[in-house]
Amino acid sequence: MHKYIIILAAFAFAACQPATESGPQPAAVEEETPAAVVEQDRLAALLDALPGEMQARYAHRNPKETIEFFGIEPGMTVVEGLPGRGWYTKVLLPYLGKEGHLIGANYAMDMWPNFSFATEEFLETQSTWTTDWPAGAEEWRGDDGATVAAFNFGAMPESMAGTADVVFLVRALHNAARFESIRPFLTELLADSFAVLKPGGALGVVQHHARDNMSDEFADGSRGYLKKAFVVAAAEAAGFEYVGESDVNANPKDQPSEDDIVWRLPPSLATSAENPELRAELEAVGESNRMTLKFRKPE
């Protein structure tokens, strides 16, 4: 009897000991990584891999923080207003990935002749932009980038209505506001932005920001700047709900006078080509003070 008691005690003692390397190991419990963290890591890695000339602008354009604030995620359909030479396009295409879709949106064709630089040759290039831009963007897609399409504001295809998750407008509103009295270009731009979004979709605006104490004449868009109250009112008139703002793209060093234009600052430096001292002063200011506003299309 004593023998059985000793054996049972030995088994009980062994069961209480920690497992050794040679013994059975408990199954590892893997902590689930939140999808948002994975996407942030993906975006950070993507930005780290882009060319140095693009990275040189990160301190001024804050692409990671801006994209995250607007809620842009892989697999989404995003409308990028005025993609231009593709600075943000080259970020968005790989970030959205092969399940995503990027739609470039350009100013209305009737708006371009109002610019002083709009030569006949330039206008000819704009007339074929909706086919030329997607063809050019194909070169930036790679094997895993988002698919691409394009349209002109004021002429959005009906088939695109209600398809987008986010409309992304970076420094795109001032010229539309500037020429609004000629034709309601800004009104049409925001109407198309509203129409292209799914219910609940987001409108993200990054725009040169005029201080509240500046005159309305200064802040009419002709100098590049708009007031926050003006942008919010215009978006709400189009049906959007104002969600909030971020100061990620704010630059308090940008303190324009009533005679200044935004293009005096980097990267344009339009007013200091013959004045190295002024150029250095403006370079020290950096890029413009920008409001970063988020709106929502009601469900």
Q: What is the fold-level CATH name, i.e. the topology? A: Rossmann fold
Estimated structural class = alpha/beta
Strand content bin: 15-25%
What is the β-strand count? Answer: 8
CATH level 1 name = Alpha Beta
In short:
This protein has 299 residues and is of the alpha/beta class. It contains twelve helices and eight strands.
Walk me through this protein's architecture.
The radius of gyration is 27 Å and the shape is globular. It has helices at 2-15, 35-49, 52-55, 58-61, 63-69, 89-96, 120-127, 129-141, 174-178, 185-196, 228-237, 276-285; strands at 77-81, 101-106, 147-152, 164-170, 197-210, 226-227, 241-246, 290-296. It is α/β, with parallel strands linked by helices and 299 residues long. It has one domain (35-258, 289-296): Vaccinia Virus protein VP39 (Rossmann fold, 3-Layer(aba) Sandwich), CATH 3.40.50.150. Strands 1, 2, 3, 4, 5, 6, 7 and 8 form an eight-stranded mixed beta sheet that branches. The longest helix is centred in the N-terminal third of the chain and has 15 residues, at 35-49. Helix 6 (89-96) links the parallel strand 1 (77-81) and strand 2 (101-106). The termini are far apart. It has twelve helices and eight strands.
List keywords for this structure.
disordered N terminus; 299 residues; globular; single chain; 12 helices; Rossmann fold; 37% helix; alpha/beta
